[in-house]
Each structure stands twice: as C-alpha cells, then as structure tokens.
Write a sequence for this structure.
C-alpha cells in the first residue's frame, strides 16, 4: 500500500478537558477500565492539532469521532461542540453521538441529534455482564430490556445508525435487536472486545461474531483491541484482525485508531502500520474498502 493511500480513521475521540465535562477523565475515584490504569489520559486535551501531530506518514483524509462519555446531564453538549470544532478545523467529518435510548428524554434527544449535520449515529453502551455465565437476558439497561429496545426502535425514524460496544457474550442479544429493527444498521465497536485470548475465549468470541455476521446490517470496527499490560504488537493482533475480515468480509470491516485511548497500548504509527501490515496481502480494492470506502458508505461522507 503506498504512503499516499487514503485512510479514514473511523473511530477516535476529541476532548477539551479545560472546558468540557467528561466525568471519567476529571473526577475521582477513577472508574474500572479495560486497559487498567488510564491516568495518562487524564488532564490532557486531545484536539485536531494533537491528532494531526501523531499520524506520521499515514494519509488520513478524514476522521469520525465517537462520543467520549460526556456528562449525561447534558446529552447534546458534545455533539454541538463537535459540530463547531468541525466547522473551525475540518475535523471530524462525522460524529457518533451519545444518547441514552432508555431515558425519558430519549426521543427528544434523538430528534435533536437528527438536526445536527455532523451526527450520523449514536452509541449507548448497554448494561453488560462481567463473564458469559453471568448474562441475564432482559436485565434492566441491557439490550434485552423492553424499555431499552423501545428506545432503540426509534433510531430508524431519525435516520441514525447504532454503534454497539459490548463484550462478545452479549452479541446474541444484538442479533435479536437487528432482527426486530432491520432498517437500523449496527456497527460493532472494538471487534466485540476479545480480551480473553485463551483458546476457549477466542472460540467463544469467533462463534458469537459468526452469528452476528449473518445479519447483513452489521459491520465491525477493527479497533480498540489492545491488551492490558502489553504493548500493541502485530503478533498479538493478527489473529483477531484476520478473523474479523474472514467472518464479516472486507465489505463490512473498518479500521480505526481509537485514539487517544489506544495510546495506552501503542503509538498511532504502531497501530496503523500494524493494520496495514496484516492487510498487505489482500487485493488493493479490499484494502481500500476497509481503510476508506466502507467508512464513506457507513458514515455517508462525500470523499
């Protein structure tokens, strides 16, 4: 892949901690986090100039921002701020907003988000269990909760898609959700969180991913696959990346940095060069789709 190959980073964050409310990055005590100690993220802004300083030789032609756990008491604040940032800097090209679909104000928030030009979809992390054997179908706040599902059903009328971050053992609930709402595309974040890399853990993850991939409305972001306490390496990540591509097909995979969060695991250069190394043996058309064209389609971009 040539160095001028166009790339759209399909998942990262911007925040201005001096002015904007992100409780997990400002308040104490710190929350439990899947990468462990995240103190390196606290107290530091991450804005377009900071992002652009990291990308090295990669030709990042556009980016998509993901909601960053803005204070839920202000459900529209982050999207309005991101719209203003995009108008001032040309980054990002699209935004995935925070919305709490099971809140009383869920419908009015979705209607307001529909009117913000930058917003393409929403993310609401559903309640999840700590391990597969602890899953309780229909638990309050989960994807099986009737109130949660009723809120999700409103997305199609507002032209918004859904971004799902949940451990792989909840993907059967996502399959049911898609079947009940076939007009709403779903993008699985962070490859379904395959944190357990034991043979049994990977077998369970693969089986769940295959069931989700049967739904043509589902796509997967290859991002956020770092391991706590380990540097990001191609050796660790190649099996997960290759399995995602084999299971979903190159037409439904997107590469993304998850920066600055994944800076806890590796540099931007390490991660994107790793993605490019793993994908290098595929036809150029397939590489371009996963690094660029699929994001154009899913996020309705113009480039």
């Amino acid at each position: 892949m040539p160095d001028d190959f166009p790339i759209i980073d399909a998942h990262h964050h911007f925040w201005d901690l001096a002015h904007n409310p992100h409780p997990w990055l400002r308040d104490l005590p710190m929350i439990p986090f899947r990468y462990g100690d995240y103190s390196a993220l606290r107290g530091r802004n991450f804005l377009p100039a900071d992002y652009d300083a990291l990308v090295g030789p990669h030709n990042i032609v556009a980016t998509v921002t993901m909601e960053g756990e803005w204070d839920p008491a202000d459900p529209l604040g982050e999207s309005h701020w991101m719209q203003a940032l995009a108008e001032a800097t040309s980054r990002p090209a699209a935004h995935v907003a925070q919305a709490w679909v099971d809140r009383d104000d869920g419908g009015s928030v979705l209607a307001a988000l529909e009117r913000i030009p930058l917003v393409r979809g929403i993310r609401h992390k559903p309640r999840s269990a700590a391990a597969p054997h602890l899953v309780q179908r229909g638990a309050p706040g989960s994807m099986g909760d009737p109130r949660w599902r009723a809120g999700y059903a409103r997305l199609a009328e507002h032209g918004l898609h859904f971004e799902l971050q949940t451990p792989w053992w909840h993907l059967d609930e996502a399959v049911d959700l898609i079947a009940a709402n076939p007009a709403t595309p779903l993008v699985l974040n962070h490859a379904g969180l395959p944190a357990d890399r034991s043979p049994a853990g990977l077998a369970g993850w693969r089986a769940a991913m295959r069931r989700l991939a049967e739904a043509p409305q589902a796509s997967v972001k290859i991002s956020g696959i770092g391991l706590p306490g380990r540097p990001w390496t191609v050796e660790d990540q190649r099996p997960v990346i290759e399995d995602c591509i084999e299971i979903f097909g190159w037409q439904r995979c997107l590469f993304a940095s998850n920066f600055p969060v994944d800076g806890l695991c590796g540099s931007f250069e390490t991660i994107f060069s790793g993605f490019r190394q793993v994908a290098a043996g595929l036809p150029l058309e397939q590489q371009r789709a996963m690094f660029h064209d699929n994001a154009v389609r899913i996020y309705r971009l113009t480039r």
Observations:
- The beta strands are 6-12, 59-66, 94-98, 119-123, 161-164, 186-188, 218-222, 253-255.
- The mean pLDDT is 97.
- Residues 199-213 form the longest helix (15 residues).
- The domain at 6-298 is CATH 3.20.20.140 (TIM Barrel).
